[in-house]
Amino acid sequence: MRIRHVVAVTGALMGLSALALPASGAQAVAYGQHPPVVVGHRGAAAYAPENTLASVDTADRLGISWVENDVQRTKDGELVVLHDTSLARTTNAKKLFPGRSPWNVGDFTLREIEKLDAGSWFSSKFKGERVPTLEEYLEEVEDNGQKLLMELKNPELYPGIERQAIRELRRDGWLDSGHLRRRLIVQSFNADAIKRFHRLDPAVKTGFLGSPTVADLPKYAAYCDQINAPHTAVTRKYVKAVHGLRGPHHRRLEVYTWTVDDAKGAVGIAGMGVDGIISNKPDVVRDALDGDGS
Ligand code: G3P
Ligand code: CA
């Protein structure tokens, strides 16, 4: 964790310790083979500005090893981490570049994006946080010993982003056998992008964001290891249907679901057999699955 984040992160965590501490004598909730993996959505988006390094570090401080992010491309071809197509909601782009509506990521150079404050909109404690490049983000996750569920966000806007992302992941050491086996999953709402990504590097574990019909699932199983469905679409029957298939790596197809932020919801959906839960409050979900968050 970078030293300059410690103050902000510590501040963000004040008042959360009661949520993070396990209750004594709590009973673990019973699941199939393992409790679901807990993934911090956009880092730990309830407690720090989403998709920033501070958000990754906050998840780390909470003891959350998996984080999720969103990858897009600047005008001059650099990969950066941001959720919305526009910079307007989560940075001060409107103020700094008033004539550049709609402030789309793809219309700004990296040099311009580096000038933006991506923290103040969330809290003054995070003033000065930046929109990270994918390279910076990967380094932070690596330094923290965390794992990454990486989303290609709106890849249709950025032709060739699949190949570029693979190049970046390789350059930053994320395609060695250890990362491939345990620390990296690449997902998208865009099935064609995931198909292309899988063709370009079949070794990477992949996920499709959505809830295809049960009849269509075998098509996805040809190139996806996971079907990552909104929690509203998940039923025990659906999870069973997904689990009944094998993915491209000959393992049982998995379901990670999003976005679940409360203890009751987490316990309920875990009971349906999902393999992962993506949450803005990953500590709440983790503690609920340990039996002390409900
Ligand atoms: O990882 C699941 C989730 O991130 C998908 O929705 O809009 O938050 O990227 P969104
Ligand atoms: Ca996402």
In short:
The protein is an alpha/beta fold and 294 residues long. It has helices spanning 3-13, 17-20, 53-61, 93-96, 110-113, 134-143, 161-171, 177-182, 191-200, 217-220, 236-243, 263-270, 282-289, and strands at 37-40, 66-73, 79-81, 147-152, 184-188, 205-209, 226-230, 256-258, 276-279.
Protein traits:
eight-stranded parallel β-barrel, 13 helices, globular, disordered N terminus, alpha/beta, TIM Barrel, binds SN-glycerol-3-phosphate
Which range best describes the helical content: under 10%, 10-25%, 25-40%, 40-55%, 55-70% or over 70%? 25-40%
Number of strands: 9
- Measure the end-to-end span: 30 Å
Q: What would the average pLDDT be, to the nearest integer?
A: 91
Query: Which fold name is given in CATH as the topology?
Result: TIM Barrel
Structural class: alpha/beta
Parts with pLDDT < 50 across at least 5 consecutive residues: 3-28
Total helical segments: 13
User: Over the alpha carbons, how many angstroms does the gyration radius reach?
Assistant: 19 Å
In CATH, the homologous superfamily goes by the name Phosphatidylinositol (PI) phosphodiesterase
